[in-house]
Amino acid sequence: MSNIQKKTDVILIGAGIMSATLGTLLKELAPDWEIKVFEKLPVAGNESSNEWNNAGTGHAALCELNYTPEKSDGSVDITKAIKINEQFHLSKQFWSYLVKRNLIRNPKDFIMPIPHMSFVQGEKNVAFLKKRFEALSNIPLFEGMEFSDDPATLQEWFPLIMEGRTVNEPIAATKIDSGTDVNFGALTRMLFEHLQKQHVEIHYKHHVKDITRASDGSWSVKVHDLDSGQIETHTAKFVFIGAGGGSLPLLQKTGIPEAKHIGGFPVSGLFMVCKNPDVIAKHHAKVYGKAKVGAPPMSVPHLDTRYIENQKTLLFGPFAGFSPKFLKTGSYFDLIRSVKPDNVLTMLAAGVKEMALTKYLIQQVLLSNEQRMEELREFIPTANSADWDIVVAGQRVQVIKDTKEGGKGTLQFGTEVVTAADGSVAALLGASPGASTVVHVMLEVLEKCFPQQMNEWRRKITEMIPSYGVSLADNPQLLQEIQKSTEQTLGLVEKELVYS
Ligand SMILES: Cc1cc2nc3c(=O)[nH]c(=O)nc-3n(C[C@H](O)[C@H](O)[C@H](O)COP(=O)(O)OP(=O)(O)OC[C@H]3O[C@@H](n4cnc5c(N)ncnc54)[C@H](O)[C@@H]3O)c2cc1C
């Protein structure tokens, strides 16, 4: 075992979509900076970013009902939906920039147009969906959204869901054609290929074990080379912890005050995947339902047309579950090891508060295959068990922290960027809306960690991402230009959009 000391400008930990995007942005903004990546697995994009480990929805709040909660006065709050939609536009603009410059090729290999629909049953849910539709459909960001409670129209929109269905209660759906299916695994791999060409050193099978402050203020990263068994120490002025579920333990090792009082709660997932080509051919949409009472927002059931390995396929889920691992390839001790003196009270408070979630997860873990089929039959009444297999999805580590609104030990369902006060280290925690908003989240990392460089970089960022710093909701003209250009570049034009 030897100890090798190496210096660099930037270290990215983890080869998922987050590090891939930050590395690509930095190479455009500061091409001379030396960047190194350490990934414990032999390839890029094989944890949460892998196409089989996430649902591949380009989250733009076109169909996800949990982004538009009902307020106590009965109105629908669309604030979050607007925010997420605008953030997805940032991602599409950056991907278009990369395609136009030939930095990545064949957008069809990572993004495909697919209608996004919401589907509900029961009088109360139909009334909610109608209100949601009325609140969103006049906003240019959601232009083209349609609502219907007519079974004949729904039959046209999703024949597989209507096949064999007895309609004895109100049902309704919304549909919008500008939705997408994103293969985040393929995109991650493309971005790492691009980074390799840009002379970024990417070290696979290198497991980061520790991060400590060096005497000159830079960071020392201790890395285990899994092939040679050597322990290496690399130093950098800036470290990004993009280790997905593995980010929290590494952030804790930095010892920065901002990492205190934060815990993580892992939620695992399963999808059902259809293996009957005739069934797959009958469906062409991502159809999101409404979460069951007590279910966490990320467990909203959905029936998705997906494009994986150049094939159209059909997935249903996710079913939530519990595993103490923070990564699919993690350890059963991950959860227990993440409990530290500074976060133990936060974690215990969350345990007491989240009894309903615990109960829900236990119920989900105990589901038999036939019970899962019953849930699927709420979407596809004619579903046959012989047509469906189970695939294990990625782990999501939900952030637990103390908040003003929720008090001690509040479970968070969003993503969180935690940075040191001097901006020398940043970590990405949390799961949803996740990869879809990656460009927005990585721009936040740049703003927090490189405030001095931002003045110089702003022009280039705006060239790459024209709506950077601008509200698209307030600028329909810019929205129209951007939408037209990204749809053309990324090949997303399934149907001509008509603007009023
Ligand atoms: C079931 C499920 C469904 C989802 N659905 C969607 C969706 O529909 N749309 C969407 O936008 N998002 C979705 N997400 C979220 C999305 O997948 C994640 O936000 C995103 O992939 C996270 O990317 P990442 O780069 O942070 O992490 P990852 O892709 O997990 O990458 C982290 C990398 O770090 C490596 N690593 C970890 N620890 C170390 C270490 N100590 N040393 C070296 N390397 C290390 C890992 O091996 C891994 O390769 C979903 C997630 C799940 C689990």
Automatic annotation (TrEMBL):
Please report which protein family the annotation says this sequence is part of: Belongs to the MQO family.
Q: Which cofactor does it need?
A: FAD
**Does the record's keyword annotation contain Oxidoreductase?**
yes
Q: Which UniProt keywords apply?
A: FAD, Flavoprotein, Oxidoreductase, Tricarboxylic acid cycle
User: Which catalysed reactions does the entry list for this protein?
Assistant: (S)-malate + a quinone = a quinol + oxaloacetate
Tell me the pathway. Answer: Carbohydrate metabolism; tricarboxylic acid cycle; oxaloacetate from (S)-malate (quinone route): step 1/1
What is this enzyme's EC?
A: 1.1.5.4
Has the keyword Flavoprotein been applied to this entry? yes
SUPFAM superfamilies in the cross-refs: FAD/NAD(P)-binding domain
Recorded protein name is Probable malate:quinone oxidoreductase
Class of the enzyme per the UniProt entry, highest EC level: oxidoreductase
Q: Which GO terms describe its molecular function?
A: (S)-2-hydroxyglutarate dehydrogenase activity; L-malate dehydrogenase (quinone) activity
- Extract the Gene3D superfamilies matched here: D-Amino Acid Oxidase, subunit A, domain 2, FAD/NAD(P)-binding domain
Source organism: Brevibacillus aydinogluensis
One of its GO biological process terms is: tricarboxylic acid cycle
Which InterPro entries does the protein's record reference?
FAD/NAD-bd_sf, MQO
